[in-house]
Amino acid sequence: MQSRMQNPAVVLSDAMRPIQEIFKAVHSGGVDGRTLELVHLRVSQINGCSACVDAGVKSARKAGVDDEGLATVAAWREAPYFSDEERAALALAEAATRLADRPDPVSDEVWDTAATYYDEKQLAAIVLMIGVTNLFNRLNATTRQIAGAWG
Fold first, then answer.
1. Predicted confidence (pLDDT) per residue in 36-64, tens digit
2. CA torsion 29→71→112→23, rounded to 10°?
3. Up-side HSE of residue 66: CA atoms within 13 Å toward CB?
4. Torsion of CA 30, 35, 41, 45, to 10 degrees
5. How far is residue 98's CA from residue 141's CA, in Å, rounded to a whole number?
6. pTM
């Protein structure tokens, strides 16, 4: 496989700086890094972005996700390796990524469950992580970025 071009945020370097600032803000929102990396990995799996799944596995491992968690994040509902807080964040990540799959994509139930574990600042961090991951997934999938090519 060969990429069609470099990632557009690399080509237009003025775009990369604000994206990096969003990541910085996300990581200052008070959410455990493990949870943020699980969210990133699950969103990337849903979107089929091999470059982001590859990078997400490496980042999640650095954030403390063990092999069992990495192997089962796609089936987190049935796997015993995730906390209730992580499950709430993963449910929110899936709902906010699959917007076209149902008329009420992010139901009150999904939101309210997440809100029982996370305050407004933390929810903002999770929602921004979901959004910026979806952005990168779309950039990378469209331009066929190669897993592992970013180092």
1. 999 999 999 999 999 999 999 999 999 99
2. 20
3. 5
4. -120
5. 16
6. 0.95
